[in-house]
Amino acid sequence: MNAMPPISTAAMSERESPTVAALFTGFFKLGLMGFGGVLPLARRMVVEDRRWLSGEEFTELLGLCQFLPGGNIINMSVAIGSKFHGALGALSALLGLIVAPTAIVIGLGVVYDRFSSDPRIEHMFAGLAAAAAGLLLSMAIKIVWPLRKRPVAIAIAAICFVAIAIFSLPLVTTMLVLGAFSILVTWLIEARKNGSRRNADLNAAAGKAESREG
Amino acid sequence: MTATLIALAVIFTQLSLVAFGGGNSILPEMHRQIVDVHHWMTAQEFSALFALAQAAPGPNLMVVPLVGWHIAGWGGLLVTSLAKFGPSSVITYFVVSLWNRFKDKPWRRIVQAGLVPMTAGLVAASAVIITVASVQGWVLGAIAAVSTVVLTRSRIHPLYVLGFGALVGLSGFGQV
Lengths: 214, 176
Hints:
heterodimer, A: mainly alpha, flat, B: mainly alpha, 2 domains
């Protein structure tokens, strides 16, 4: 595989089945490399470097992982592991992914516990925390911004924000009530769009309704 | 101690099952349970641990094992990790074989699209809760603001921004 000529790298259909150990080491490296986003690196490793999956297979599995609860990359490790070696493969990939980051984060925790009473270190962690807050703020902006032309979506996001950040309502309740409502509304909007597509007269009416909504 | 571990197991199992849209959407609930309901730590400590986890490599929510360890030592680390990563992984494991049956069904797309505004609201709530807890005084506010703008407008590696924040913080400038 190392001395493969460039011609056969183009033939992406040639795929390799990883062993259980390879699943562990592959995701172990990913866990160590990714900062603030492992997904782009995961695609490179799984599709381009090791060729465990084709690009389409990867995208399809990612669709599944985004649909289900849990971190995308965590779910991805489980999905890829189980695809090749069932439960053992899933466990191996998942452990590979989280074992090193867990060790590192606990190491940082030990340092924090030991020195957080030192005023200089305390100041340093305060600065770090402020920058981490900025990281979350920019992430929020990037997720909210694409919704700006969808008033219904923005309204639901705003209600969700107020319920959680201001009224501190439990997430499970909010998710069950507002999440279900959001899915229902999405379905109604979708159904209206489809109905209008079938009927030219309705189409014009729906267009008017939509522009009112917008 | 056992009571704490059981409480951690219950909380993180619930979080695992409702973590739609990735890790940061459950940060507010984690914060609410740990700081407001159980008083295991202050809001400042929570945001400091969150910041530490951001400075470590790997998946998004490495704050989970860190919080478990901080509250209840090695047992806490094990319980929170299992409770957070276990249930969602088991679901993924079983659904992956059914995926081909429903991935092209219209309801799949509608459910997924319907959850997007929820994720947006939850991540915005996370951002505000962590910002309120970690920004005291104008210097920390400026660090947060500069980090936000830089990370939104450029493709700079987040680690540089965290390093910048830590260095400005270390200088002690403007902090009591």
